[in-house]
Amino acid sequence: MEDFANVSCTPCLISNKIIESLSKHSEYSDRIKVIKFPTNFPSPVDPMYLTAKEYCDYRMSFYQILFAPTIIIDGILRPVPTDSNQIKNAILQRLQTASNFWISDSSEVINNGLFININLETSNINNPELENLILRIALVETEVNYSTPPGSNGETKFYDVVRNILPSNDGYKLSEIKGHLSFQFENSIDSTWNINKIRAVTFIQNANTREIIQSCVHN
Hints:
Largest sheet: 5 strands, antiparallel
Distance between the termini: 17 Å
Number of strands: 11
Radius of gyration: 17 Å
Shape: globular
Helix content: 10-25%
Structural class: alpha+beta
């Protein structure tokens, strides 16, 4: 689930509560991975947008995001962001969709660097769509708290906020990976982040259709 929201967006109060409920307190919460991409509208000075501007701008352009809030499920479904039933039904629909990929990952902070190991396996390496598949790793901070609201909607607590996209917005092409991937990525952690709340969310996406076909999160 990708969430496009802003600290001065009033309807985001509703969508954020729905996302929190479904991703943290539902019977399938362990199968939902969330990445919040702050927008630069209505407030252009959303502090979480400013600190991850290049990644937020890229994803907003990729999906042609025009409104906040906007929720996108697996890259292709756009339920009404203030309608909990539509969002839940979209999630259930995608949970019933099979994938040929399996991802596991782990991460560890060593000397202020984040080391990520990813294992990727596929049951259909000859899939002709492989040329279009991209693997990306999003670093999210699972909880960001402010002492005073950073925007006009009054919120002070935010979840699963994007901090970085590894190795870059372009990601890794799966056509260059031969069925199994194990690598270690070292990335410096910004001093303003809460190291204990940084998580790596790994996902595979079709660059043409925008469908996300598998994801994994290190807990």
